[in-house]
Amino acid sequence: MCGRYALTLAAYEKFLASMAMGLVDSVAVRPPDRFNIAPAQPIPVIRLKGSDRDQPIMPEEPLPKKEVALMQWGLVPSWAKEMSLGRPMINARSETIAAKPSFRGPFRRRKCLVPASGFYEWKRAKTPGAAPVPYYSCLPNDHYGNQVFAFAGIWEIWMGPHGEDWLETVSLITKPATPLMKAIHHRSPVIVDPEDYDLWLRPMDPPDPEIFRRLSVKTEAALRLHEVSDYVNDVRNDGPQSIEAVMEVSGGRQYDLF
């Protein structure tokens, strides 16, 4: 799963600048540096403007402009009778996304990009009873979270039974672990390369689960992984020390920044 990630303002602005010609209303959302983003928190996403419309976009049609939106991380299905369904749907599996009732509608019409500087995963400890060990994955030589890439996401609109509430929520898509992540966890987030942004965002009717085979993996292949301290375990901790590398030294551990 992907359950925690980082995004600095510099990385976010770099991401917006990379698609400035196709983006509208981007200045309204300027998130602060975040080094420990957790489920149920608001996160910025990029989606097609008007992509919740009923009519599909034909393959020969140009895509609408893109826009930034703030959404709650943890998808709530549109058909849910109440906002809370227990464990939040923070991830959707690429293998089953086209069939699951909670995800197949958003996968068809409401896809998005979620910018990130890096993400965390926890490795199960070998010693019985020991706490899992956190690791951080990011692009190489990223000393302060200023590099950026994009997760593949889907989003949904939930309204209360009488229209009294309105909530937009998002789920990140995962797939079987990449070679890099296999030593840590059995799942990896789906990362979208810049040349595939439009391919990912374009609505599909019917949905095409084979799209995941067509996405480039250049960014994914460039990622690096390092151990970080248990500071990141507490969602209340949100400083840059979250991404600092832990180095093994004789007689104990040493903390250093990359």
Structural key phrases:
single chain; 258 residues; mainly beta; hypothetical protein yedk fold; 5-stranded antiparallel sheet; 5-stranded mixed barrel; 5 helices; 33% strand; globular; disordered C terminus
Structure description:
There is one protein chain. The protein has one domain (5-256): Alpha-Beta Complex (hypothetical protein yedk fold). With 258 residues, it is mainly beta. It contains 5 helices and 16 strands. The longest helix is centred in the N-terminal third of the chain and has 10 residues, at 9-18. 36% of the residues are buried. The protein has helices at 9-18, 104-109, 197-201, 211-214, 218-222; strands at residues 5-7, 23-24, 34-37, 42-48, 66-73, 91-93, 111-116, 118-123, 133-138, 149-159, 166-176, 187-189, 191-192, 224-227, 245-249, 252-256. It has a 5-stranded antiparallel β-sheet with strand order 3-1-8-9-14. A 5-stranded mixed beta barrel has the order 4-5-11-10-7. The model is unreliable at 249-258 (pLDDT under 50).
Number of helices: 5
Overall spatial form: globular
Q: Spatial order of the strands in the main sheet?
A: 3-1-8-9-14
Number of strands: 16
Query: What is the share of helical residues?
Result: 10-25%
CATH superfamily: SOS response associated peptidase-like
Major sheet, described briefly? 5 strands, antiparallel
Report, as a whole number of angstroms, the end-to-end distance. Answer: 24 Å
Instruction: Predict the CATH topology.
Output: hypothetical protein yedk fold
**Mean pLDDT level:** 88
Please give the structural blueprint.
Layout: E1 5-7, H1 9-18, E2 23-24, E3 34-37, E4 42-48, E5 66-73, E6 91-93, H2 104-109, E7 111-116, E8 118-123, E9 133-138, E10 149-159, E11 166-176, E12 187-189, E13 191-192, H3 197-201, H4 211-214, H5 218-222, E14 224-227, E15 245-249, E16 252-256
Parallel strand pairs: 2-5, 5-11, 6-11
Antiparallel strand pairs: 1-3, 1-8, 4-5, 4-7, 7-10, 8-9, 9-14, 10-11, 10-13, 11-12, 15-16
